[in-house]
Design a protein that fits this description.
Elements lengths: L9 H12 L1 H12 L1 H5 L1 H5 L1 E6 L4 E6 L2 H19 L8 E6 L7
Parallel strand pairs: 2-3
Antiparallel strand pairs: 1-2
Length: 105
């Protein structure tokens, strides 16, 4: 005879589906954008705006100035460590993109 298992809860079934489909990783990557200010702190959050994370782990972040982009590029390894702590959806690279300056008239 086949042993019957109790039915899975909806939460368990959804979690299993997300893991098997790869969506769990993408949701964790997207969570980085949502939690950006908490993860990087108020000083960095004040001059940055995360825009997107690609499936292969490239995070694009808009930065207020080129000077800040330079400074943050030096801090990238430490920032990536904070972003990836406890996540399976990982960031492998950050592209710091300075905001466009005023257009000439």
């Amino acid at each position: 005879m086949t042993e019957r298992r109790p039915p899975a809860t909806l939460a368990d079934a959804l979690a299993s589906y997300l893991r098997q489909s790869g969506f769990s990783k993408r949701l964790q990557q997207a969570g980085i954008i949502e939690q950006w200010a908490e993860l990087v702190g108020p000083q960095i959050a004040a001059v940055t705006a995360p825009e997107s994370v690609t499936p292969d782990g490239v995070l694009r972040v808009r930065v207020a100035t080129a000077a800040w982009a330079n400074e943050l590029s030096l801090m990238t390894p430490r920032i990536i460590g904070r972003l990836n702590a406890g996540r399976t959806g990982r960031v492998k690279e950050i592209r710091w993109m300075p905001a466009a300056g005023p257009s000439p008239t």
